[in-house]
Write a structure and sequence with these properties.
- By secondary structure, the protein is α+β, with helices and mostly antiparallel strands.
- It has one domain.
- The protein is 32% helix and 22% strand.
- It has a two-stranded parallel ribbon.
- Strand 1 (13-20), helix 1 (30-39) and strand 2 form a beta-alpha-beta unit.
Amino acid sequence: MQLPFIKRSGSEFDVIILPIAASSPMLLTRNLLYTAITRAKKLLIIIGSERVIHYMINNTNTKKRNTGLVYKLENMR
């Protein structure tokens, strides 16, 4: 059973609430903020420090995620 609030990548929602707390710089990226903004159809509520939000806006660093997913999929038995 799929819950009604769980959707796939690229989905939009009427309201997005984005809590932002000081955490790893790797997580506080402009991309995350952009994704929240583009997914909110009617309203985006950002809860957090203005300093952290400004950091996110200026953090254009993107890191390659090394999840090992390709290796795991290729070596499934």
